[in-house]
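Hello,

Our lab assistant flagged a job as stuck in the queue for most of the afternoon. It eventually completed. Since we weren't sure the result was trustworthy after the delay, we are filing this so someone can double-check. Below is the sequence as submitted and the structure that was eventually returned. Let us know if re-running is recommended.
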Amino acid sequence: MNIVLKVFFSLPLIAIHLLGCFLGLLMYLLDAKFRERTVKHINQSHIVSGKIATKNLIISNAMHIGMALMESFSIWFASNTRIKRLVVRTKNWDLIKKLKSNNKGIIFLTPHIGSFEITAQYYGLFSPIKVMYKPTGRKWINQLIYQGRNKNLVTPVNIELGGMKQILKALKNGEAVGILPDQVPPEGHGEWSSFFNQKVYTMTLVQKLHTLTKAPIIFAIGRRLKMGSGFEIELFEFKGPVTTKKIDAYIETIVKTSPEQYLWNYRRYKLPKS
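-- returned structure --
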């Protein structure tokens, strides 16, 4: 099965993206929950004004979500050479050398925008990084995700199986960790914050890790370039007091730069599980 998937997802990126666009539009047309959630979240964000601009963003976003899904598999099965080729350029990469010199590790924050798989895989070609993930309810999907991410110097860490200890140890050893900061945590592990003027429950994990280790925080964004052209990884240094509201404000600013690439169908505004 893996061999078949590897061959299929070794297609040129332009083919992966075209298939992704088709998949995204299909999900938009056939999946009522996908469509309703995407439309609702974009409308309430007021990120664009006017009916035509909003409709264009909704359709474009559906295609980008399809591309994100397809390219994730492509990245998981990609060779090191292909990963390097997919990343066309980086911005502010010198931040890593600057912040690694304090030997306190680095906390990378990658929200659900663009290709959130390419950032860790590219970094993992050069330095060790532990990437936190929350398993799904399907065993075969968890195995696929783990196998896809577990290569080179990237180590997936299950947050539900002692992941916190592994993350802390990595930071104290001067290594990097990767976190999706806009994932909704269980009740008791977050604080109420605001995202595009809507109430959201945001994880406090980042503050806790920073308080315990004093590790610097970098936002890492893998933006999708022109269809089939590859990716640009841009880094932003987080400055100032670490709070959930400030983290969400950073994410909001980032989303505004490429709103069509954000995962608007993600259930960011859901209530935490008790």
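-- support follow-up --
The delay was a queue issue, not a problem with the job. The result is valid. The chain has a mean pLDDT of 93. Strands lie at 87-91, 106-109, 129-133, 154-158, 176-179, 190-195, 198-203, 217-224, 231-237.
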